[in-house]
Amino acid sequence: MDALAEIRGIYFDECDEFTGLLEGYLAAMAEGRATSEDINGAFRAVHSIKGGAGAFGLSALVNFAHRFEACLDALRSGRVSVHAAPIDVLLQAGDVLTNLVQASRDGATLPIDSGLLEALEAFCGGTPKQAVPAEFAIEPEPAPAEEAAPPAPSRRPVTVRITPDADLFRRAIDPRVVFEALAGFGALELTCDTSAIPPLDSLDPLTCHLAWTAVVNTDATPGAIVEAIDCFLADHEFTVLDGSDADHASAPANQGDTPSPQADAVAQPGPAASADAAAVAKPEPAAVTAPGRRAGGGTIRVDLDRIDKLMNLVGEIVITQSMLTERATMLPKREAAVFVDALFSLNRQTRELQDNVMAVRAQPVKVVFQRLPRLVRELERSLGKKAELKLAGEDTEVDKTIVEELADPLIHMIRNAMDHGLESPEDRLAAGKPQEGVIRVSAEHRGSRILISISDDGKGIDRDRLIEKARSRGLIAPDVDLTPEEADNLIFHPGLSTAAKVTDVSGRGVGMDVVRRNVEALGGRITVESSPGRGCKFTLGLPLTLAVLDGMIVRAGAERFVFPLSSIVETMQLDSRSVEPLPGGRSVLRLRGEVAPIIRLRDLLGIRALGNEPNVVIVETDSVPRLAIAVDEIVGQQQVVVKNLESSFRRVEGVSAATILGDGLVALILDVDALPAMTQTSRRAPPMTGMYGAA
Amino acid sequence: MRILAIDDTRTLRELLCRTLRAASHDVVEAENGEEGLTRFSEDRPDVVITDLNMPVLDGIEFTRAVRARPDGGEVPIIILTTESASEIKAEGRRAGATAWMVKPFDPQRLLDMLGQLRK
Predict the structure, then answer these.
(1) Pairs of CB atoms within 8 A across A/B
(2) Is residue A16 exposed (0-12), middle (13-18) or buried (19+ Cβ within 10 Å)?
(3) pLDDT of A295 above 80
(4) What residue stretches are annotated with the CheW-like domain (chain A) (predicted)?
(5) What's CA A11's distance to the chain center, in Å?
(6) Structural domains in chain B?
């Protein structure tokens, strides 16, 4: 698909939007409740369809949209009263326009009822105020207009009188622009009329008091000259007098009842256009597959705000429900049984409600993925590299907000992969690889997360360079040896870009660190795997939704915390015989022949101990496949509503958000992927006393 | 040259931006006049190319608003529109539009015009 075809695709998608909007506006008119905003909106929708159709040379669509637009313009300007107008004509025109868009998309033709065309013309009072501009064809149709045109004039003087309005300079225009445009036609002789300049004391330098007479010696038609300057000057600000008959051509060439050749061209539908109109008017049922409504029909547009409100309400219901569950324990046994039954149904229904609301907000990642092929092609050109983009899992659905936030990181990473990852075709051949590199982008669901990976088969991360750079900037001590993984992870360090020179494509210093920050702000995580000479793979893990989460509630000391259920592998009693101490105060848990690092939540978060820690939660994290976390008690499992902590407090390491539990108290939701790093470094969170439990 | 491109139709904006970027211009986009004004203050374009019929703030109102700014007098504003009626054109001029071009535009002509305005 070439670039134009792609934009064409976008255009038709947009047309669907416009026809949808149009339907709403027309319905408002039909019901007699249309405001001027509705009429304007309808006009703009049709106008936009026309504009794009012109750009793609869809003349049948341009023609019809133009007539339709003229009617709406008549309503808009008040020339036709909306109350007196035959709205059914507009409704019919709206349907025809929708069908025409469909037909144009499929490359089909569609006959248009000539009765409707007449009705549209009658609507705006006879002929449309301006016939279809002939210039709408994207490529000038093999213009029979030229056949009719007089033979090209020979070289002769053409006089152009320029009498600009006094406000010329306020339009940020330099008259020399006009003179240069004229000089393009041939030798130019210019005289300036300064007679209107007032005495110096009353001179406003911003007011134009000048007029010019330009004589061009040219073989160009007056029409061509008008065309060259009428984009800068209003019609009444200049006249073009063909030298050969300048003597009797005292009437301005482009004013009033003597239209300029340019105006002529505009006023008469090109023969191509009228031929088209004829084709349109002639019923040709055989050529048509009635497009009708698109399959799946029956859609309405809903403001995103409304869905968000709905989602919030669902969140509140989830909280109320957990409160009820909490209260149920206080009831006498017999009543509690009945109550719990009802609660169970409520639980199921709430979840269903929530899934359905979420489905409304879900969008396939295709929305973002489809922008990538073009990006890759453009980068291929600007970087002189060859790459094939392979997409997978485009239909994976995820919350709209996530889809939107996905675009920037994804584009950035593709740029990186093209710029720094893939080698030039020559280098690839020398390395025994196919000339064309491969970039894979895939999406899949994993639990309650979506995983998006971007991999290339380029040269991988240049670890030595990264380490060298980090050392030279004092980011790591000279004597510290990094594991390959640690070295690769330096790529997320602010201000470390391995690009030898700053290119237009990437390497402006805002690099993967920004991507990581953005992804983490969404509750996501990004990891990198690289093997030198073979390529590099970035994996983004993002939550499917930002609103609700299945959680397991645990207690550490007197505080409760929530683990996202999706990251929990299992829970068990902590058997002290399976714990083996390691040098340096750490210990590991032996787990069916494997070992898992063990951390004590109390120690990690600096919480005062109350009794021992008899339970352990085994979680899966991005960096450590099994991490054992010892806690005081496993309280239970429930859905929690995610409340952003950053907006009301600040970002806290190891904590992704907060929630309100059934008893009305706040609990923090742990960011399990951040926990291993907190144990490995001394970046332990400050004592958290007083930070929570403050609902 | 930094160019601010304002059009509410994504397709046309895309076509325009592509043309301009292909000619190595630095392009800033906006969806309507209001966003255009914000971009104008923040990105300080050398030239503005704007559509006429747009929601929120249309091309003429945008042009007027730019010309009313102390720093808005010298920046050429090209109106790129399907409208070619002379009364609308005249209104555009009165608002302070530098040039008028009818859509669909001939990319080369637009680039030529930019070249002329730049001098």
Answers:
(1) 100
(2) middle
(3) no
(4) 548-681
(5) 15
(6) 2-118 (3.40.50.2300)
